[in-house]
Amino acid sequence: MASCFTNCAGNAPAPPMVPPAPKEHALPAATMAAPVVPLPVPMEHPELGNLCFANYIQTIGFATSKSDASLFVYKDENRVAYLLLYVNDIILTAPSTELLWHITARLHSKFAIMDLGDLHHFLRIVVTRDRSALFLSQRQYAIDLLQQASMLECHPTTTPADARTKLSATNDAPITDPSAYRSLTSASQYLTLTWPDLTFAVQQVYLFMHDPCEPHLALIKRILHYVKGALPTGLHLGTGPVDQITAYPDADWVDCPDTHHSTSGFYVFLNDNLASVLILQMPDHGLPL
Predict the structure, then answer these.
(1) Is 0.85 topped by the overall pTM?
(2) 18, 65, 220, 249 — which has fewest CB within 10 A?
(3) Domain containing residue 119
(4) What is the pLDDT of residues 79-97, one digit of tens each?
């Protein structure tokens, strides 16, 4: 079961790029075996409030995740709860209503929070659910991004990048508005949360944020043409016990014309659920930079 909460002091800022998310929305947890709640905490300096909140929840049994400083894990015998904190918004998920409301009561005793109910929206991600799965979508976010780039009416393409084209820090003419390039690239990176097939192409345009040229701008536009043709895309998360872990690696050897480094990556699935994506550039000897 899962619940969403929000800080009574105000809204969390939206991710860098397009219009902010409405305050009344919250997002469901990645696991269906628990309830989710959003919560608000009054404070003039959110970073200080987050530190205070993080310190408190560790006193009631939560531990900070080693992989994500905003994720906290609660373990009590065979019961596990997860709490995700983003400024004034919180997602809380637990295996039973009893544990969920036990934790919620402890939070209410210390902070002024508001229960927003089941998770439906969180940081521009829309969550829909049925008895067997969650579906995470950023369709409206993608539409807003296309509008920001004046490409809402563009023709779609079937792939986000041309695998035969190798970008480099060439002497091509610099683009006239590098700030717009950086904004679109950052916004596209946020889409990879539910569009993992964008990960490699977005990683490529990120390499030239410092001095973008026309070929780099052409790739970001190619990415947006692909987004236009794949607006129904989202991330499906099924329920049930995990009995299989599968990883799919790939590499583009010595693909960088400037450094002759390789690009490697992998996707990890728990059953049919995508759990992890990593794309990284590697030196000649094959070890991560």
Answers:
(1) no
(2) 249
(3) 2-129
(4) 999 999 887 788 999 888 8
